[in-house]
Amino acid sequence: RIRPNMSTAPTAFSFPTQIRYGAGTLSELPDRLAKLGVTRPLVVTDPGLPPTPAFALLRRPLGAAGEGKTWKVFTGVRPNPEEADVVAGAKAFRDGGCDGVVAFGGGSALDAGKAVRLFVKRPDLKLKDYDWAADWSGLAPCVCVPTTAGTGSEVGRSSVIVPEGRKAKGVFFQPNLLAALVILDPEVTRGLPPALTAATGADALTHCIESYTCPVFHPMCDGIALEGIALVVKNLPRAFRDGDDLEARGAMLVAATMGAVAFQKDLGTAHSLAHALSAVCGMHHGAANALVLPEVMRWNAARKPGLYRRVGLACGLSVVDDTGADADRKTVAFITTFLKGLGLGDGLAARGVREEQLEAVVDVAFADPCHKTNVLPVTRDDLKALLKEALA
Do residues 224 and 262 touch, judged by C-beta distance below 8 A? Predict the structure, then answer.
């Protein structure tokens, strides 16, 4: 009854990223860079991070006296990175005589840091003309150090950037964008405020749930997604309540990474709605996911009973002997209450979304590719109905 769907169609599985995990592992950065042949790294980050204790933890191993001499910093990454950001980052790389990138920050900084290397290799590149199948070998080495636990961009094979002349984000896939090394050090996330801890954690949870229910066949990702759900349920409330709980902080970093590995399968309708809410209404991506996820789960479950039984099991619920509909009901109720307990259950209207904005949100959401890998197809009218349910 709870066995995942199997397939005999040809496919491929890959999990190649090297990861160093644990409190204090950021101190290994100089040795790790040396092994990659990097002697003069460019740190790519956003302007808010250099004054923080997290950035001080980065300065320590790199050497504060060497800032601007033996290592350079580029802080021109916006919350939603634009093509101009990565073009400027590539110029800073060349002007500084750099030979590698340390991407340090949340998903925006990580995406920008990975993408800078494309423009280093091809200074004339325009994202509107990007061809992922071109020869992108030989990109500069990149080390990713996430300071939030949500996007999982550190293990991603793509970067999300707004191309020049456009308003919507584009996803630029390239296997060579994978980081040579990821450092997951919970010390770096210690100062993350509770609200941001909750929102980024909700993003990781949504990645795990939507990738698990995505119909693409990838049983390795299914297992990773379910374990990621279990880690979020156990550890996100702890990290939310106590930012100094390094065990919980570390587990959330791992869960976020697992969510991103799992969504090699792709995602679903919640992500299309969240992307649109961010683009049109300026909502934080993780918070947007949290506010639409329960409604999307209810919609899916009503049409495919039993879909969320194993998600419920991962949450610690006793749903093995329930009917499919009952298992779904208990699971969706749990997720709804779980998110409310993190301050993420107040509805879209409470976050400033107005009903007159819904048409524009639906337009962007329907153009977004994530809903095309939802467990069931959705129409434009379905998306509008889901947004209205989430509005209150």
Answer: yes
Cβ contacts of 111 within 8 Å, gap of 6 or more? 81, 153, 156, 159, 160, 161
Q: Any residues with CB less than 8 A from the CB of 350 and at least 6 apart, and which? A: none
Instruction: Assess contact for 162 and 119: CB atoms under 8 A.
Output: no
Tokens 């194993």 correspond to what residue? 310
Q: Copy the structure tokens of residue 337.
A: 């209450």
By CB atoms closer than 10 A (0-12, 13-18, 19+), residue 210 is buried
Q: Which helix (H) or strand (E) holds 381?
A: helix 380-391
State residue 104 phi and psi, 5-degree precision: -130, 115
The average confidence (pLDDT) of the chain is 93
DSSP 27-83: GGHHHHHHHTT-SSEEEE--TTSTTSHHHHHHHHHH-GGGBTTTBEEE----SS-BH
> How far apart, in Å, are the Cα atoms of 353 and each of 49, 229, 279?
29, 28, 12
Q: Give the residue from 366, 342, 353, 360 showing the smallest Cα distance to 294.
A: 342
Q: Is-contact 112 101, C-beta < 8 A?
A: no
* CA atoms of 19 and 183, how far apart (whole Å): 6
**Strand pairing partners for 19?**
182
CB 42 within 8 A of CB 96: yes
Q: 45 with 109: CB under 8 angstroms?
A: yes
Helix count (H) and strand count (E) of the chain? Answer: 13, 8
Confidence of residue 79 (pLDDT cuts 50, 70, 90): confident
Give me the sheet containing 41-44, strands edge to edge. Answer: 19-21, 181-184, 142-146, 100-105, 41-44, 72-74
Answer whether residue 169 shows pLDDT above 80.
no
What is the number of other CB atoms lying within 10 angstroms of the CB of residue 348?
27
For the entire predicted model, the pTM comes to 0.92
Rg over alpha carbons for the chain, rounded to the nearest Å, is: 20
| pLDDT tens, position by position, 327-357 | 999 999 999 999 999 999 889 999 999 999 9
